[in-house]
Amino acid sequence: MKIWRNGLLVEASGAIDATDRGVLLGDGLFETLAFVDGVAMRFTKHLARFERGASVLGIPVPAASEEMLSGIAAVADAEGITEGAVRMTLLRGSGPRGVLPPDTPAPTLLISVLAGAVGHGAPLSAVLSEVTCRNERSPLSQIKSTNYLDAVLARREAAAAGADDAIMLNTKGLVAEASAANVFCRFGDALVTPPLTDGALPGIMRQCVIYHEGAVERSLSPDELLKADEIFLTSSLSIRAVIQLDGKRIGDGTAGTVATRLADMPRCAQ
Questions:
Q1: Kind of pairing, strands 190-193 and 216-217?
Q2: Which of 159, 155, 195, 146 is nearest to 178 (CA)?
Q3: 34-66 burial, b for 16+ CB within 10 Å, e for fewer?
Q4: Contacts of 10 (CB under 8 A, 6+ apart)
Q5: H helices within 80-114, ranges in order?
Q6: What's the average pLDDT block by block, 10 residues per block, for the chain (270 residues)?
Q7: Second label for 88, Cα 20 to 30 Å away, from 15, 40, 135, 221?
């Protein structure tokens, strides 16, 4: 498998230095975006979030947008992929032993493309996570850090319960987001999503749904979520209805009207 590393196509195996702080400490961030018909969907929005996250961590991005787009195209061409997921990963690079990063990092920028269907995600079941939570007070809740262990724990909890995903609460017990997606719910004609201040990641698809559907950002309790007429999860790769939560049927137990109508949105350029 070929990936792009700091301007060159290389084999994925052995592409990362074992002393990179991204490996040792999870000192990095990533971005995932849809790739449809050879086009990186919403690249400008994703790059803006990527650069904001890099600024929070103090890691310079060692490539301009044009070079990154060329890297995506080069990997997709090398792998023969026309539809799937692009992942851009930025690691701080090697440094002295300890937590404090070096004053002048030598970052590693990786781009990979994996084949797969975009959009039309199947309905799923979910649980409310009890083993971990989102820290809404941490700046890391607003970026896609490579340290995704809270999400890993939540997803394992869901799998152990026979569910497809987990919805995480924040430190106040309010709904934040799913393991790798934002949460929306419908009460009658009102569409609601948790605010960023409650620990929700500023998702690109979340932003698009709020803009196009006029969704309201407000806090949600778990009890309120369980009473929703419809729940769906949004990511750059899919919009999926939640038809069961903690064993309780949501709405009529089928993919809701909004989720069905928006199913193709991840395939759109804007």
A1: parallel
A2: 155
A3: bbbeebbbbbebbbebbeebbeebebebbbeee
A4: 2, 3, 4
A5: none
A6: 96 92 96 97 97 97 97 98 98 93 95 94 96 97 96 98 98 98 97 98 97 97 97 97 97 90 88
A7: 135
Q: For residue 67, which phi and psi values (nearest 5 degrees)?
A: -70, -35
User: Residue 122 has what DSSP assignment?
Assistant: P
C-alpha span between 22 and 145 (Å, rounded): 10
Q: Which two tokens stand for residue 243?
A: 């038809």
Q: Long-range contacts made by residues 267-270, C-beta under 8 angstroms, separation at least 24? A: 267/34, 267/36, 267/41, 267/118, 267/119, 268/41, 269/39, 269/41, 269/42, 270/42, 270/208
Q: What is the spatial distance between Cα 60 and Cα 57, in angstroms, rounded to a whole number?
A: 9
The H or E element spanning position 206 is helix 204-213
Q: How many residues does the chain have?
A: 270
Report pLDDT for 176. 98
